[in-house]
Amino acid sequence: MAYQSQAACRSLLAIFFLAACTVFMKFAVPKGTFVKSSPSDHSPATARHSSGFEQFQALLKGQETSSILDLSGVSQANIMFITGAGHRISSDDIVGAMIDSFGNNFNETQASEAKAARFLEQTLSFPAESFDGALVWDAFQFLPQPLINQTVDKLLRVMRPGGLILAFFNANEKIKEIPLYHYRIQDSKTLLQVPRGTPQHVQNFNNRTIEKLFEAAASVKFFLTRDNLREVIVRR
After folding, report:
1. CB 45 within 8 A of CB 110
2. How far apart are CA 75 and CA 60, in angstroms?
3. 163 to 30, 40, 62, 95, 122: CA distances (angstroms)
4. How far apart are CA 121 and CA 115, in angstroms?
5. Alpha-carbon distance 206 to 14, whole Å?
6. For 205-230, b where at least 16 C-beta lie within 10 A, e where not — what string?
7. Is 15 exposed, middle or buried (0-12, 13-18, 19+ CB in 10 A)?
8. Biggest alpha carbon–alpha carbon distance for the chain
9. Would you call the peptide bond into 44 cis, given omega within 30 degrees of 0 as the criterion?
10. Integer Cα distance of 193 and 44 in angstroms
11. Can you say whether residue 38 is alpha, beta or left, with left for phi > 0 and alpha for psi between -120 and 50 degrees?
12. In the chain, what are the helix, strand and coil shares in percent, each to the nearest 5?
């Protein structure tokens, strides 16, 4: 009797398993279909080739161990890539400081002197001439005048003479708002843009405006891209 009961249980389990598989196959998402993530899931990332980042690394290769500042916040991927290349890395989340200081709408609240002062107090609080390289990514394009000038002055202060700065700026004047991103290094030529909040009003910068912004630096070099970003390497 015990053997018959066990066999019956196994049969029932087999029937249940087959029924479950049938339901799964019927309602499974077809291959290639994008499944929308829940808020607790990781946001989908977009990969983009970056000639500026590739050149940034090439210029650092001839140097001894360099100190690099990553302004996209702490990232395991970025830490592993930079330290794997023999450099040291520090992190500062400049967009996170904007969110803390200005809330969900940067454009409406950046005119507040108290909030601007709070942002500047939180940002780039390092000793002078601490870094040989800085990965600004696209953070500066969300700052209006005169706040962007004050932030650039703070960045140049913490850079060593000859240090390199990589920054991205919106190149399409018709675009008024763009998403906020974390920038994660995938390999020596590829970056991942990971969404991190609501789209924000973006300032427009042409080559002349960018050159004026970094007029205290030794040089500014531009890189052509196929998307709407203007990539720039600034030498302190």
Report:
1. no
2. 20
3. 50, 39, 13, 22, 22
4. 10
5. 67
6. beeeebbebbeebeebeebebeeebb
7. exposed
8. 91
9. no
10. 9
11. beta
12. 40, 25, 35
221 alpha-carbon distance from chain centroid:
21
pLDDT tens digits, the chain, 236 residues: what are they?
444 444 444 444 443 433 433 333 333 333 222 323 323 335 588 999 999 999 999 999 878 899 999 999 999 999 999 999 999 999 999 999 999 999 988 888 888 899 999 999 999 999 999 999 999 999 999 999 999 999 999 999 999 999 999 999 998 888 889 999 999 999 999 999 999 988 999 988 999 999 999 999 999 999 988 888 899 999 99
Count of residues making up the chain: 236
Q: What's the gap between Cα 55 and its chain centre?
A: 18
CATH 3.40.50.150 fits 46-235, yes or no: yes
User: In terms of Cα–Cα distance, which of 119, 108, 105 is closest to 199?
Assistant: 105
Q: Indicate the pTM of the whole model.
A: 0.80
Q: Token pair of 164, please?
A: 């390199």
Residue with tokens 């708002």: 177
Is residue 168 within 8 Å of 141, Cβ to Cβ? Answer: yes
Contact 225, 206 (CB under 8 A): no
Taking the mean position of all CA atoms in its chain, how far away is CA 19? 45
